[in-house]
Design brief:
This protein has eleven helices and 14 strands. It has 334 residues and is an alpha/beta fold. It has a domain of 224 residues: Ribonuclease Z/Hydroxyacylglutathione hydrolase-like (Metallo-beta-lactamase, Chain A, 4-Layer Sandwich). It has a seven-stranded mixed β-sheet. α8 links the parallel β11 and β12.
Length: 334
């Protein structure tokens, strides 16, 4: 049996606790009301104060844990937090940014395109119907789609001020510098941070261990998210890194090994989905029902559909499937 990439012995503290995982770098595990159970956010100590990477979900348990962690580390919110970097728009990463900015007065930094995207998505005025119609066109029953829209698109209070970053930009963090790297796939304008001197990658949801990042096609996505994700993974191969700090799951060390595993996973998933549509055209919802387990929550059901759709889109892009539309959208292997 081939041994997969192993988890590090670092970052094994329980959910709700903070631990130092490199010199001046701390991981705080914040609870989230999702199957993932927690998000890891990172606090980096520097001469000019603390840098925070990601913020957690917008609910009371997040704020209780933040307050306890700050007390543990001797952080004064108003005096010590200098900047807050948010890797992407998802509510477990961006959700508590407004609260943290109000407590600290620190700027919240995101990639420039992610700022405009977040404002469009979370302040949308066109109501739930476009999202519902997207789900229905891809085979989800309307009643389920209405429930899904309520669960996933309930809005989010954004920070008053968001400060733009550009890919390739360097930030002064923790007595050194981190480089901002655009890492699309899980989100169109997600960023990761590379600390070349300390050989650390703050990997957000781009590269996870034990689970694979959700690469989904949503109605607001740029085209072909899986193609852009796979290209981005290849672009990180050989990066000078020996510590990978993800947004979820274990810390690990073998970046290239995990990239290989993720590439293989998507090859296998593409082939599996192609076999499902070999005999007759199917909707993405039908394919997802054949590929994923049956006991999914409404939240998981939507992410399974989006991930299935991203893979079917890639099969079409690479000439292995075609789509037809007759009220609903169907895919068939070619």
């Amino acid at each position: 049996m081939i041994e997969g990439v192993r988890a590090s012995s670092l970052g094994t503290q329980p959910i709700g606790e903070v631990a130092e995982i490199a010199d001046g770098v701390y991981q705080l595990k914040l609870p989230v009301p999702l199957p993932l159970r927690f998000i890891s956010v990172y606090l980096i100590e520097g001469d000019d104060g603390w840098t925070v990477v990601d913020t957690g979900f917008d609910y009371s348990q997040t704020y209780e844990v933040w307050e306890a962690a700050a007390a543990t580390l001797g952080i004064d919110f108003e005096e010590d937090i200098q900047r807050i970097v948010v890797t992407h728009f998802h509510p477990d990463h961006l959700g508590a940014a407004r609260w943290l900015q109000e407590r600290s007065g620190a700027p919240v930094l995101m990639l420039e395109d992610e700022i405009s995207f977040s404002r469009r998505l979370w302040n949308a005025e066109d109501g739930p119907e476009p999202f519902i119609e997207h789900l229905v066109r891809h085979g989800m029953p309307r009643e389920t789609a209405v429930e899904a829209s309520s669960a996933l698109r309930s809005g989010l209070a954004l920070p008053e001020v968001l400060t733009p970053l550009k890919a390739g930009e360097k930030l002064s963090v923790g007595g050194g510098f981190v480089r901002v790297v655009h890492a699309p796939g899980h989100a169109d304008h997600q960023l990761v941070l590379h600390d070349e001197e300390r050989r650390i990658l703050y990997a957000a949801d781009h590269i996870l261990l034990k689970i694979t990042p959700n690469i989904g096609l949503w109605p607001e996505n740029l085209p072909h998210p899986l193609a852009r994700y796979l290209e981005s993974l290849e672009g990180l191969r050989g990066l000078n890194v020996n510590l990978v700090l993800p947004g979820h799951g274990p810390v690990f060390h073998d970046l290239d090994g995990r990239i290989d595993e993720l590439m293989n996973h998507h090859d296998e998933r593409l082939e599996l989905m192609r076999t499902v549509i070999e005999d007759e055209p199917k909707t993405a919802f039908e394919v997802s029902a054949a590929v994923f387990r049956k006991d999914l929550s409404i939240y998981e059901l939507c992410f399974a559909l989006a991930e299935t759709l991203a893979h079917l889109d890639y099969l079409e892009l690479t000439g292995r499937a075609e789509r037809t539309e007759d009220g609903k959208i169907f895919f068939r292997a070619v």
